[in-house]
Amino acid sequence: MKPATLRMLTLALAGSLTLLGTAYGHGNVTPQPVDTGNLKKLGSEWLDSNPYRGDADAIRIGHSAFAQNCARCHGIDAISGGIAPDLRQLPAGEEGDAVFQGRIRHGSIRNGVTYMPPFEGILSQEAAWAIRSWLDTVHQE
Question: What b/e string do you get for 41-51 counting C-beta neighbours within 10 Å, with b at 16 or more?
């Protein structure tokens, strides 16, 4: 095979793999339901801070919800492999609550590229704060 032909085939294959990786690199990203039946209902207005901080049920539910909905990008047990931020390093307390709430509700889009989809209306406020409760337990400075 001629070098120019081989080069063209290599570039075409690399481009195809890049497209496949972009479209399918995260696998099935359909949000998974989170059973928050044991948690106090919070209503439709989003709270400014985590009402479940330290709650054992919320932490258990949050760990499961994170594994099913977040780990694909943020890593198993929130240990990022570089695709998305390491959520163990979210600021602690209410400062971190504000950052977390903004991202989980509205996602992150830069220059027209979705880095994280918005989860408001997909995950309940109870599920989101349960995830935050679990993240508090793995926090690192």
Answer: ebeeeeeeebb
